[in-house]
Amino acid sequence: MTKRLPSAAWLTAILVAVLALAAGSVVPAMPTAGSASGSAGASGSTRPPSSLADPGEPGTAGSDGAGDPYYPTDGNGGYDVTGYDVSISYDPPSRHLDGDTTITAVALQSLSRFNLDLSGLDVRSVEVDGAAATFAMAGEHELVITPPATAVRRGSTFRVRVRYDGQPQRLNERVLGAGGWHVNTLSGGAVAAGEPHSASAWYPSNDTPRDKATFALTARVPDGWSVISNGVESTPVSVDGWTTYRWKLSSPAATYLTMVAIDRWTVVRSTLPDGTPVVDAYASSTAGARSAENRLPAVLAFLSRQYGDYPFDAAGGVFLPGSLGYALETQTRPIYPPDVDITFIVHELAHQWFGDSVTVTSWADICLNECFASYAQWQWQEDVEHTDLDEQYRSEVTRADDQFWGRRLYDMGAGNEFRAVYSKGPLAIHALRRQLGDETFNTVVRTWLERHRDGNASWPEFEAHVQQVSGQQLQPFFDAWFRGTRRPPDPYLWPGSLHG
Ligand SMILES: [Zn+2]
């Protein structure tokens, strides 16, 4: 993520709802939704699906949170999602969404009941392995599902199909900027994005970075509108005035890194030298971003030299008709405000390794994403503009005050995740590089990304990794820079070539 002031063109959720009501909007039918509208109970299934437990095995309820201390009710426990198959139909004029999402998951315990996260939409039906399940909404975003029979067996793979509709909404965030469903008043288009969560605004999910899964989207919009999402596209199909777009992410993604962007895009397709497809989408007012985005192949080549091979099978960017207040590293295809320069692109593409391929375990680990993506901007300046990074470091250290040093880079507390990582973060990574020397630093970074590719990792694991690979005892260094709230003592502030 890169912070940016939002533009006024994105409606608040409440205003969206009021306008649509006033317009008496007509709800388009979802052709795949079938006729199921009753909630539950009456299963027509004649034999118990394979994942449902034998009668007598009671199971227990999955927890309503995934365990992140900063956002205790984000995500859920008791199962591990392996894939999302999301199908939506969206009508921009009425802002109505019909959804039909199937989640494939493995039960980590025998489940008498479990939760998904969904916010602001009405659930019409839920099936578990093809049999109707009972469900209820609880709290801000908990969809509580009770499968038929007694339980889903521990270790079994099961499928949950949820049909739902309504007007998707923004999610309220006090500190990090609005996430969820954003409608642009100028273009009439919409984008779903946000950190630390956004998926629950448009599809039922285990909305936590801890549960990564593959993601496939089928999205149907009226002809003339187009849909951009993550990963690789299929050829759109137009029938009866509606066009269906399909996108697929084959590498697992955290839910906050999935997105959908609906607008009247100008789409530019190209390929990287190795054949990787690049899809760039520009809103009408974003022509100025093209010269920056045209450097994507050079940026990815540069980053690959630092980090190892690009981790995904697709690339590109989405240049929105207005600023949401941030750019975000949505997987394979970041979203950007209209007027970006090359530093945004370097930052969000660096996240494809730091954040997307290797994802935080907890939000306390956010420096793994932002300190490195911010430092990538430094490295790009060093490589392309021949900036003297030691000089830049010294001048930033000279300017730093007690408040600057007082902000922690690790475990900074909920709501403080983005206060220090963009400013103190790159200084800390530069100091680490000088402490280790270039060769060891590069080895540390590459082996880290290789070891945790497509997975999750924590900051304490990174500290251990650095010490193991370098053979150096660096806990005092990490304590001073990443956990401390004061200017690091001189030996840690001026390591290597910074000394003297
Ligand atoms: Zn970032």
Key features?
500 residues; Neutral Protease, domain 2; alpha+beta; binds zinc ion; Immunoglobulin-like
Describe this structure in words.
Helix content is 24%, strand content 28%. The protein is of the alpha+beta class and 500 residues long. The protein has 2 domains: 2-350, Immunoglobulin-like (Sandwich); 360-498, Neutral Protease Domain 2 (Neutral Protease, domain 2, Orthogonal Bundle). The strands form 6 sheets. Strands 3, 4, 6, 7, 10, 14, 16, 17 and 18 form a 9-stranded mixed β-sheet that branches. Strand 11 and strand 12 form a beta hairpin.
Topology summary:
Blueprint: E1 2-3, H1 13-23, E2 60-61, E3 79-91, E4 96-107, E5 111-117, E6 122-128, E7 131-132, E8 134-138, E9 142-146, E10 157-166, E11 170-171, E12 179-183, E13 190-193, E14 213-222, E15 226-229, E16 232-233, E17 237-239, E18 242-253, E19 260-263, E20 266-271, E21 277-282, H2 290-293, H3 296-307, E22 315-319, E23 326-327, E24 335-336, H4 342-350, E25 358-360, H5 367-384, H6 389-399, H7 402-406, H8 424-436, H9 438-451, E26 455-457, H10 459-470, H11 475-483, H12 490-493
Parallel strand pairs: 2-5, 3-14, 21-22, 22-24, 25-26
Antiparallel strand pairs: 1-23, 3-4, 4-10, 5-9, 6-7, 6-10, 8-9, 11-12, 12-13, 13-19, 14-18, 15-19, 16-18, 17-18, 20-21
Helix pairs in contact: 3-4, 4-5, 5-8, 8-9, 9-10
The structure holds zinc ion.
